[in-house]
Amino acid sequence: MEMERVHEFPHTHMDRRPRKRARLGWDVLPQATKAQVGMFCGQEIGNISSFASSGAPSDNSSSLCVKGVARNGSPPWREDDKDGHYIFELGDDLTPRYKIYSKMGEGTFGQVLECWDRERKEMVAVKIVRGVKKYREAAMIEIEMLQQLGKHDKGGNRCVQIRNWFDYRNHICIVFEKLGSSLYDFLRKNNYRSFPIDLVREIGWQLLECVAFMHDLRMIHTDLKPENILLVSSDYVKIPEYKGSRLQRDVCYKRVPKSSAIKVIDFGSTTYERQDQTYIVSTRHYRAPEVILGLGWSYPCDVWSVGCIIVELCTVCV
């Protein structure tokens, strides 16, 4: 589980930014073609999107199980739930390399689990995508985008870093570095109190830097929102907040991140620039006018989303 360390007031300063591996296949389903099995076992892919469009097998890999226990020490085979989510228990092995410690989150795409990486000796976040064709295809697009971003983001201080990816029991699993909570979760746990303006300025600067970096690579994120922006560290400080008149002031405390460093996540909707992009993108509250009106959109839709986020961080309230 995520551990938080609390540092008491005073909040003297906010830290500046603390300024691929082979693809592996585990319990790959038996009807995969020879070419696909080779790809999962670490061979380079010339075109990831070509795999996504071809789909993937979805039969049970019974040939890999002996009396309900899969090879390589994996847990017994379990059917996915009705929505295609992977069913697991805490303490299970996710391949011999990763041990499941806790569930960090869940969304339409699937689940994010906190796991111990036995090889790197560190905690990681593993995104287990639903075993549904369209989500598998989106996951492969996200992997391609992450790999492209990783090649150019040498310092790894703008976007979340991908450690590994593999196909496990018909679920694309993407391994990321483990970061702190999202801006949305931090606000929610803080009763939606606004951030200090200096902190908002730091976060806004980093967001715009990340957007400019992606746009230079001709990429458009299309889904920027507080849920997709993670604090690098979960550490926070408590600062006093005064309410009421000068004579009768009530003092309460609100949390403020100790470090302003952030990273952008979720590149499943990221796209390259092209003509006549008119389909709907972005979560409603962060959606640019040109998207709403169906006028076609491009790079500015990301900038609009950043503006909405900055305003929200300044003005949110109980």
Automatic annotation (TrEMBL):
Keywords: ATP-binding, Kinase, Nucleotide-binding, Serine/threonine-protein kinase, Transferase. Residues 98-318 form the Protein kinase domain. It holds the Pfam family Pkinase. GO terms for molecular function: ATP binding; protein serine/threonine kinase activity. InterPro entries: CLK_kinases (IPR051175), Kinase-like_dom_sf (IPR011009), Prot_kinase_dom (IPR000719), Ser/Thr_kinase_AS (IPR008271). PROSITE patterns: PROTEIN_KINASE_DOM, PROTEIN_KINASE_ST. SMART domains: S_TKc (SM00220). This is LAMMER-type protein kinase AFC2. The gene is FC2.
